[in-house]
Amino acid sequence: MATFTIRGGMPFAQHRREQLIQRAPAALVTATVLVAIYNVLVVSLGTHTITGLVLFAVETAIPFGGAFLLRLRAARRHVEQTLLLLDMVFTTFVLSELLLPQPNAAGIGLALALKLAGTALVFPWAPVWQAAAAAYTLAGYTLTGMVTGVMVGAGPNIIVAPLVGAMLCIVGATLVDGHRRGLYA
Q1: Alpha-carbon gap, residue 128 to 149, rounded angstroms
Q2: What is the pTM of this model?
Q3: Contact 141, 95 (CB under 8 A)
Q4: What's the distance, CA 134 to chain centroid?
Q5: HSE-up of residue 11 (Cα within 13 Å, Cβ side)
Q6: How far apart are CA 133 and CA 88, in angstroms?
């Protein structure tokens, strides 16, 4: 991997981490608002169990909690791992919606695709972190969908949408990272 050291002798990877540390809290608060709006719309359009409402509340709280977590020095020191862990926890709660009676697999697939696109756009982390997030999101969606039977007889959009979202977010993160690298030089 090439190392760029132009601005003030700082390697690009260090610059990217500092940008991630600075921007992640605002991105997480923004994510909280967007998740809350999405969940309110989903709840208002359908009937949900108490369990489903609790899941929505936890999904809304995770990004907000992450913004506070990043105030800790250890979390900032390992910002990529912290954000990846937060993303895993959030993804797990979204995937657990597939375990509810009469899950909305298309809506869950859309939520995961939006999550992937959102992290690719707002987190200035290396593309390898985005690829890791996409890999476990896609694997979790596929495995949970197969175990619950949601994927059996599912339309192609339910299966393909998260796959396309994962591919687009990895390509997008790579392109954006290249632009950041070019602007840094």
Answers
A1: 31
A2: 0.87
A3: yes
A4: 8
A5: 6
A6: 7
Q: Which of 177, 170, 145 is nearest to 159 (CA)?
A: 145
Token representation of residue 103: 């899950």
Contacts of 114 (CB under 8 A, 6+ apart): 38, 165
Tokens of 10: 């700082």
Residues of the chain predicted below pLDDT 70: 1-8, 47
DSSP 135-146: HHHHHHHHHHHH
Q: Which residue has the tokens 């900032």?
A: 76
8-33 per-position pLDDT tens digit: 678 988 988 899 999 999 889 888 88
- The pLDDT assigned to 153 comes to 74
Q: Do 117 and 133 meet the contact criterion of CB atoms below 8 Å apart?
A: no
